[in-house]
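name: query_chain
kind: protein
chains: 1
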Amino acid sequence: MASGAQRRIKSISYAKYGYIFILPFFLVYFFFQLWPLINTFIVSFHGNGKSVEAWVGLQNYKDILFGGTRKVRVIHESFFECLRNTVILWVGNFIPQLALSLSLAVWFTEAQLKIPGKGFFKVVMYLPNIITAASVAVLFLQLCGQSETNPGAVNLILHKLGIVARDEASGIYKTIPLVEGVWPSRIVIMFIQTWMWFGNTMIMLMSGIQGINPSLFEAASIDGASSGQVFRKITLPLLTPIMAYTLITSMIGGLQMFDIPFLYTKTGNVKDHIKTLAVMIFQYFHAQADENKMGYAGATSVLLFFITLTLGLIAFYITRDKDEIAKKKQRKKIAQQAKKESKQFGGISL
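structure:
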């Protein structure tokens, strides 16, 4: 028979300590994430300017999506222009980023290749990810300077290559507008985003490749499969889950792109051709008191939330593991068939 002390020890519940440990997380989540999210929905149904307290229902959404008067049409056009810029900048950096990261991940995990200093290269490639966006923006503003008398390093290199001309009499360069030009500045921002994030993506893809059963690669090698066949038939199909994760997280980050487009300017005014939805929300929120666009900022945030959610669900649906779903359905069908046969024999298992 157990003593009283033993019974007290057995009756101690350690679950409450677990709840105490996770409580700070939920408090922080509630005050800094959940409540701001709910409040954004509430703000999106209120007015702008002096009537910021007035309830306007869905009017902000109607103005943004369908336009109206001349003043409202500017907001409508600005929203779709910013959405277009956001998609262009994200697609333009995600595709080269994924191609580069996947190539490097396959190269670094190739067992037959003995690459000296492999760890050093991984660290160097990951380093841009830990540099602050402000520092990166200043660095590229200096490199891409488009002054006609004192251009940046990129324009000087292009001059040496014969791409940028220079008037010998006046000493003035015909520089490429890498900061102010529409497509040159977009391409620079795409490059910056790719440069900053390809190391992080490469590390994730490497972890996915290293999780594949090595016996599959050994069997393919014994069968005489080429590197391309191994990549197409083994690596790429089994890498689908981590590719889906990369796609969805990159898409969420890309649609919320803010820092580099906002900072890549010398005058402090973000050009319309690189203004993203996140920048638009920030500017509307910080507009002057009588001209603030709090309601429009909230509605734009909510629309961005639903755009992200919709694209995320589509990406998840496209990249889902169809074989695993088919197996799950087959197992469920077998279980239902077995249960049905069991009932036919009075619940007696045969």
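note: The first helix runs from residue 4 to 11.
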